[in-house]
Amino acid sequence: MISFLRKYKRALAFTMAGFLCSVLLVFGNSVFQPTLAAGNGINVIIMIGDGMGWNMARAAALAKGAPFYTSGKGSGLSFQNLTGYGLVTTYGTTIQGNTPENPKDQPHLTGNSALDGSNPLTGASPIRPNFSFKPTPFNPGDRLDGNSLADGNLAGYDQNKGGPVPWIPLTPANPGTYDKEYIKYSYPDSANTATTLYTGVKSYNNAMGVDIYEKKLKTILEIAKEKGKSTGLVTSVPISHATPGAAASFVNRRSKYDSKYDPSKTNQDSILQQTLLNFQPNVLLGGGHPKDFDNKSSTSTAEGVFNYVYVTEDTYTHLKDNPTSNRYGYTFLERGPNATQTLLKTAAKIDPNKGGKLFGLYGARGQEGNLPTSSSKGDYSLTGLNNGSLYTSVVKAVTPCPSGQIIPGTSGDCVPIIDAAGNPISGPTPDTVRPLAPGETDASFIAREINENPTLADLTKAALTVLGKDKDGFWLMVEGGDIDWSAHDDNMDNLIGTMNDFDKAVQQVITWINNNGGWSKNLLLVTADHDHYLTLNDDFVSKLTPNPDPSKARGLKYNAKNITFNKHNPQDAGHFWGADPKYKYLWGSHSRRIVPVYYQGAYSSSLTRYFGQGFQIKDSSGTYSVPGVRGVVDQSHIFQTMKTALTEPPL
Questions:
Q1: What is the pLDDT of residues 513-533, one digit of tens each?
Q2: pLDDT per residue as tens digits for the range 31-62
Q3: By the 8 A CB rule, do 507 and 78 touch?
Q4: 306, 313 in Cβ contact below 8 A?
Q5: Which three-class secondary structure state does DSSP give residue 539?
Q6: For residue 400, cis peptide bond before it (omega within 30 degrees of 0)
Q7: Is the pTM of the predicted complex or chain greater than 0.85?
Q8: How many CB atoms are closer than 10 A to CB 313?
């Protein structure tokens, strides 16, 4: 018996020793490995070209000298080299405008939530009378905002009307059996499409991270943080704008950019305050700086004229006065001398594993907070000029219309009067005046803006420098937001320049991936939130002007200066906007046309499996099944793919 006990004690001692060694290896591992990953180590990067439809990518690729193509993925741009390619539906909801005063039979509109809007506070209004969500039948209406009395609360997409792919029909001049006006109806905005990309839930135009009942949704940024991953938002436009903001806010109107901080409130009900206080991405880099925000005069003061639109004076002053110790816990940078060098040096010091967070606020003077605008010559000759002066100086909503015609799909925009050659008899009158400080010239103004603002590629490099330190992995969104602004303006010169800027940022990411774990550790998705309505004629390339030295034009072989500012009919310009090939300027907004997605990397096969599949909407009212579109994925599938890559075990 004693012999047995001795043997038992000896065996028990060995067992306990083994157990203690295991415990030390697990819990004491920090001695040998400073970071014990809580996440799966996968990095997910989504890059959104705002408004970057198939023809926008095509125009930029052709300007870089790519072979002319009329279908498919094409070549010439960095993201066109990714192995995965497909098409995506972008539609949102459309909800009847019933109120207690008018409780039934009100038109469905894309900007309506399911609440009656009687209280501006998010989620505080009552539900509209007689409302019950109906995912089918699809209900696009017949106007850009829907304006339909039919049933159904999803705009949907019908390939028999809009075309099965963006290149069928290739031009509305030959629509065949398709309806060339259809893609205008119930077009989505950047808020509801971003909400779907980040949450998988369809919502209304204006919705920022909320469902149709204005209830908060869990975003992909929050899911990444739950998995111990760092997060980042980067954009070329204001940081409280729709695409970055929808990942890190829950407000009912996209115009709630910022508000004065009120410590007595648990919910500030504004995009920037919620981003900084509630969501706290480790990296927040972009535009929105208030200095000479708008170009309303030809001169400025030496200090600048500050216009607080995307950031309040309270927020800006607090951060400026407390750049390293503020109520938000961020290291704050802003536009200033040698901005890129300062940004990259600071990014190298920020450690997300220790809770480090970086907020960089930039924006060129005269450009409504956007980064300096580049042109199709690869220069910054458009910097400081108004981003929306071409289209709006041609197409106006006046009563009565001088032409006697309303543009189909609008609620009152007038068809411009054109001469025998197709040129508008009034306009365009593009902006040519910058808000110069005393003693400044146009050349010195541009040089200063380039020096005091990083490029989108620079911002992306800084974000990767910070986030790449997290061994758990990270989630990052990078937006080329000024692509959309150029398309709203029907400005081909600006479009090619901003597309080139975005592609440079994509190449920055691809290079980083190749040097940091490769495609087995990283997932890259490049897509658009929505399309516009651009058509390239078959002779488009011949209408472009060769750049003397593409290496000095940032890789652009051709520029569009002449066809943007001097050629104002479709034949001479080689392109047009809208559904009528007789007019160059006939549409200055979004469309519901399906958009491309380019992708590669970890769990990318998840997205491939979704093509042609339906999906489910899970919001605060329940779960609804939505039919898929043949051969196409939906933006909700992109969300599911990102979620899989962030949460599944390592491959």
A1: 999 999 999 999 999 999 999
A2: 223 333 468 999 999 999 999 999 999 999 99
A3: yes
A4: yes
A5: coil
A6: yes
A7: yes
A8: 13
Give the residue carrying structure tokens 């009152």: 412
Where helices occur in 322-408 by DSSP H, the ranges are 339-349
Place of tokens 């054109």: 418
DSSP conformation letters of 498-512 = HHHHHHHHHHHHHHH
Gap between the Cα atoms of 359 and 375, Å rounded: 27
Nearest alpha carbon to residue 90 among 531, 431, 407, 414: 531
Structural contact between residues 506 and 47, judged by C-beta atoms closer than 8 angstroms? yes
How does 136-169 read in b/e, with b if 16+ C-beta sit within 10 Å?
Answer: eebbbbebbbbbbeeebbbbbbebeebbebbbeb
Find where tokens 């995506």 sit: 88
Classified as helix, coil or strand, 610 is coil
Are 131 and 96 in contact by the 8 Å Cβ rule? The answer is yes
Tokens of 554: 């940032």
Q: With 0-12 CB in 10 A as exposed, 13-18 as middle and 19+ as buried, what is 214?
A: buried
Scan for tokens 């910022």, then name that residue.
Answer: 258
The terminus-to-terminus CA distance of the chain in angstroms comes to 52
For residue 87, list its beta bridge partners: 596
List 479's β-bridge partners, or say none.
Answer: 48, 235
- 424 φ, ψ to 5°? -65, 140
Residue 12 has pLDDT above 60, yes or no: no
Following CA atoms 404, 410, 416, 422 in sequence, which dihedral angle do they give, to the nearest 10 degrees? -120
The H or E element containing residue 19 is: helix 2-27
Let me know: does 159 contact 631? Beta carbons within 8 Å.
Answer: no
211, with CB counted inside 10 A (0-12, 13-18, 19+), is buried
d(CA 346, CA 330): 12
- Contacts of residue 512, Cβ cutoff 8 Å, sequence gap at least 6: 461, 464, 468
- Which is nearest to 353 in space by CA: 282, 275, 248, 276? 282
The answer to whether the CB of 574 falls within 8 A of the CB of 536 is yes
Q: How confident is the model at residue 301 (pLDDT cuts 50, 70, 90)?
A: confident
